[in-house]
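ok so for the tutorial part 2 we go from a plain amino acid sequence to predicted structure tokens. step 1 is just haveing the sequence, like this:
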Amino acid sequence: MVETSKRIAQAYRQLGQLSSATLEYESILQLFPQDPDVRRALDELEHRTTCLAVSTPATAIAAPEKNRATPPRPGGSGQRASAEIDDGRKAMHKLFVEGKYISATDFNQLWPSADGGAGKVREPFLQILADQGVMPLETSLKLVCEKTRLCFLPLEKYDVDVELARSFPREVCRRWCILPFDRMSKSVLVATANPFNQQAARDLAGAAHQRLLWYLASPPELVKALGKTFR
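step 2 — the prediction. this is what the tokens look like for a chain of 231 residues:
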């Protein structure tokens, strides 16, 4: 059984699904805490995720303090606020506009304000694209999933740990539409619809003090789960 789990974890590593590989290895450690192969593999995975900090949120928590963006000034435009706090706008623009999937005009008009409404869940960009008929949700989710190599999570079928989720700041979760939904060993699993949002990762990491493993989730399922969790 252990050898099979190791092979599964190795397959995840080769596919670039680092969070799934980590979970597989950590499940082995629960039975065999001193397994040298597993510990070595986890050290390598941690190094790899640190190197990927620029492109994915899973390790944005490791960003140096000096790189933290300045909070948006009151009254500033949504576009300026997004640029200041790195909410993933630049990376999404590169993926969707420079990749020639949508026009720059559509992107600029539809990108959500970083401020959002007070106390409201910030509607994910992928959902806005679908609502406006610019790109089907299935297409945009597949595109982001392939780009980031994050695992897709069918959140509506998952038994969310509500108590864990509520231990994190409500405003951070609602502002960035992210949801810590479970804990595995020393890691907290987090669902997002914008895996490029470095600010969301930093904000959540400040409250977690644990390694964050990110999963891509469908925006409607994510918004619904947030509504149930933070009523």
